[in-house]
């Protein structure tokens, strides 16, 4: 068996709003209804969690203006996902909700307290996806001239997670006395200051609330660069990983398991979830036809502009890809200050190709050949996981009510028939369910 998650890649932001199945998303993306539909369907489909992306900026790197961003609704507008979380768990009983928190945006005390509050409100089904943010435009909304350099951001994130972890442990397990007669609510000798004085943070503690059902809320991590992997190996319960092919996926997971052992952790306590965008159809032929339509669309000017916009973003807002000739050489020497692992997907091994060729060949998130009817795709997912060694997939479809039905009622049923995914939830909390196999 393997785990399933759903990556809500544009967060609590504008969802596909002008296609055939967009429905009322153009105006209703701000309302809770579609996210509730999504989460209840995911629970029916045996997913471990919904994973909500978040960013805080209106990008203007591509073309040097926000025109393209706002004309298409690219990563903006976007609401804060945290208040949405308890609405989703109130509509469900078992599924977890992981939402993104940036170490650049949140002081550690505020984040630790917010996560524990959400752990209480979700009755132990909350997870925090700890990221370092990607572009300068985010940094500039939080007091920086520019987003700090990539590796320094991770150094700061390490200390940030150390502080947050200490705050989560600042109440001993037996600190609550709950004696109404004496009366004594809590034992002050079992609630400790943390007195943290580090390079980036000074925090006295203790946390001013009691531990939630999970004590330590689930921690997720999304970066795949070496410092990102280290952060995950030290602190995370689950991480997003980008899969290119089964061999690379196996190597990535093996690498993470080694890093976990090096940090004295049980490698089974980190679930490596590979992002994937399968193409489903009523039949294999129907899926192939839909894939052909996707490939044809990907070659249009509009789709290519979208990819150039994305590259400008993942470069950390350092490079405006509108400046390059699509039929000129692919600039392969750009590392950027944003998502370095995403950048590599486009730069590595592409010397001598044109920019257009690379944009047509490479996708940040792969389909891993998962194209077909739900049954065909379910069988291939099983084969890939057997090769990789385990953990699971983080499915990343565009979010419409059509894709929700395809991936929960269609794909989940096919996976379940093969015994590949859970047929119910054994435990009340997200971490326990993640660790149950
Ligand atoms: C698939 C994926 C999802 C990510 N989601 C977010 C996000 O929701 N918000 C955010 O600010 N950064 C996000 N990031 C950025 C990373 O988590 C990370 O903090 C940083 O950009 C560096 O990434 P790197 O380790 O790949 O270089 C994401 C990165 C990847 C690859």
Automatic annotation (TrEMBL):
Keywords: Flavoprotein, FMN, Monooxygenase, Oxidoreductase
Family indicated by similarity: Belongs to the NtaA/SnaA/DszA monooxygenase family.
UniProt keyword annotation of Flavoprotein present: yes
Keyword Oxidoreductase part of the UniProt annotation: yes
Full protein name: NtaA/DmoA family FMN-dependent monooxygenase
Domain Luciferase-like: 33-383
Origin: domain of life: Bacteria
Molecular-function annotations in GO: monooxygenase activity
Pfam assignment, any one: Bac_luciferase
